[in-house]
């Protein structure tokens, strides 16, 4: 029988610990594994325990203090070893703070040797209820809070936490909501924001002690392909669920590309604010490539995605925030598009550089 793996992710160590404990008590014949990267010392700490106490507590020097090294050198080998042991049916894994579950899920989905002994039952993202809005939409970086997974980890807390919510099979909010929300009697904006960002079928549990690990282990396992499809920046369906009270969303779409010069000059108008934004776009200087757009809390990542192939090219961004929606976003989006007459048949953008080389590399083909 394959051991069921429950992966706990998050950006707050206390919330992650509470979720892991709640799962450990309910999961059948469970063992808990916690990994923590000490960036300054270049060390990975591993603690393995079950309901009888600590089974092992080890520190391992890493060649590079980063998530990839930790996964390759210790996390996956530890899961394999515990599955081989045979004493436990469930493994509740608290990944390093800020480490996303995607890499573990990808390896276990593709490695037939590991897949014979391990299956991902669910990915559980844990957030501090009282800090949800700040963690998802604030401008802090992991380094600002001393939670980076490497010496050069300058990722925004919001970007990381939003991606975790979007990848999760379950989201748990630990601790009480903010005092303002608790006293107002109004709908819980924090929980509504999470439900807007998460897949529509993902439960949001507002008490770690109510996590039903036994049900997660018994149900069909985490479907990595479905999760990847939901997280795709180029999918056709909207990127978010319909928002609830206190939360806004905006979907902007056009068949036209962004103008490279205007976009470089005015990126902040679309990205620099307390909202989550993601999607895809294209540039007339790189017409064959679907380019990726993802950010939160004023931090923005732009990357080279995949070839458009036979699909119609499009610029498609979704925004999510709380409170009042910024009025300028639709008009700014329109102002950054290239006029249709400038990208019609037979028109070529013959330029050697477009200003996006730092993000996308050199232009390989000009339209």
User: What is the strand tally?
Assistant: 13
- Give, in spatial order, the strands making up the sheet with the most strands: 4-3-2-5-1-6-7-8
Q: What top-tier CATH class of the largest domain fits best?
A: Alpha Beta
Give the N-to-C terminal Cα separation.
Answer: 55 Å
**Can you tell me the CATH topology of the largest domain?**
Rossmann fold
Which consecutive residue ranges, at least 5 long each, have pLDDT under 50?
Answer: none
Structural class: alpha/beta
Domain count: the total is 2
Radius of gyration, whole Å: 22 Å
**Average pLDDT for all residues:** 90
**Proportion of helical residues:** 25-40%
What is the number of helical segments per DSSP (H or I, 4+ residues)?
Answer: 13
Indicate the CATH architecture of the largest domain.
3-Layer(aba) Sandwich
Which outline best applies? globular
Largest sheet: 8 strands, mixed
> Which sequence of SSEs, written as H and E, runs from N to C?
EHEEEHEHHEHHEHHEHHEHEEEEHH
Strand fraction equals 25-35%
Describe this structure in words.
The protein has 367 residues and is α/β, with parallel strands linked by helices. It has 2 domains: 3-231, 3-Layer(aba) Sandwich (Rossmann fold); 247-360, Hypothetical Protein Yjia, Chain: A,domain 2 (2-Layer Sandwich), CATH 3.30.1220. 31% of the residues lie in helices and 28% in strands. It is built from 13 helices and 13 strands. The protein has helices at 13-26, 67-85, 102-110, 112-115, 132-137, 157-167, 179-184, 189-197, 213-218, 224-231, 260-271, 329-335, 357-360, and strands spanning 3-10, 30-38, 43-50, 53-61, 90-94, 118-128, 170-174, 204-205, 247-254, 275-283, 286-296, 299-307, 315-322. The strands form 2 sheets. Strands 4-3-2-5-1-6-7-8 form an 8-stranded mixed sheet, with helices on both faces. The longest helix has 19 residues, at 67-85. The chain is globular and about 70 Å long. The model has no long low-confidence stretch (mean pLDDT 90).
């Amino acid at each position: 029988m394959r051991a069921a793996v429950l992966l706990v992710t998050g950006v707050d160590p206390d919330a992650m610990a509470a979720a892991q404990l709640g799962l450990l008590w309910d999961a059948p014949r469970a063992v808990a594994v916690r990994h923590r990267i000490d960036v300054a010392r270049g060390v990975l700490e591993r603690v393995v325990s079950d309901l009888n106490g600590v089974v092992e507590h080890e520190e391992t020097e890493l060649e590079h203090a980063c998530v990839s090294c930790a996964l390759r050198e210790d996390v996956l080998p530890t899961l394999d070893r515990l599955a081989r042991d045979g004493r436990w049916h469930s493994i509740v894994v608290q990944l390093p703070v800020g480490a996303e579950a995607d890499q573990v899920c990808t390896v276990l989905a593709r490695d037939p040797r590991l897949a014979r002994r391990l299956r991902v039952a669910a990915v559980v993202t844990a957030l501090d209820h009282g800090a949800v809005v700040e963690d998802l939409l604030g401008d802090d970086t992991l380094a600002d809070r001393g939670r980076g997974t490497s010496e050069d980890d300058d990722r925004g807390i919001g970007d990381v936490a939003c991606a975790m919510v979007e990848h999760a099979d379950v989201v748990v909010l630990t601790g009480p909501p903010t005092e303002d929300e608790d006293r107002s009697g109004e709908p819980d904006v924090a929980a509504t924001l999470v439900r807007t960002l998460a897949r529509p079928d993902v439960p949001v549990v507002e008490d770690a002690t109510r996590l039903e690990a036994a049900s997660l282990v018994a149900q069909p396992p985490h479907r990595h392909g479905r999760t990847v499809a939901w997280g795709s920046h180029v999918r056709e369906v909207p990127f978010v669920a319909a928002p609830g009270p206190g939360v806004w969303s905006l979907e902007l779409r056009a068949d036209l590309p962004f103008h490279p010069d205007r976009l470089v000059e005015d990126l902040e108008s679309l990205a620099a604010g307390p909202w989550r934004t993601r999607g895809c776009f294209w540039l007339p200087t790189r017409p064959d490539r679907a380019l990726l757009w993802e950010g939160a809390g004023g931090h923005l990542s732009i990357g080279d995605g995949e070839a458009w192939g036979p699909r119609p090219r499009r610029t498609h961004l979704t925004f999510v925030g709380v409170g009042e929606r910024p009025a300028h976003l639709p008009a700014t989006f329109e102002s950054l598009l290239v006029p249709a007459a400038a990208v019609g048949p037979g028109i070529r953008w013959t330029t050697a550089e477009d200003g996006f080389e730092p993000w996308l590399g050199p232009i390989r083909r000009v339209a």
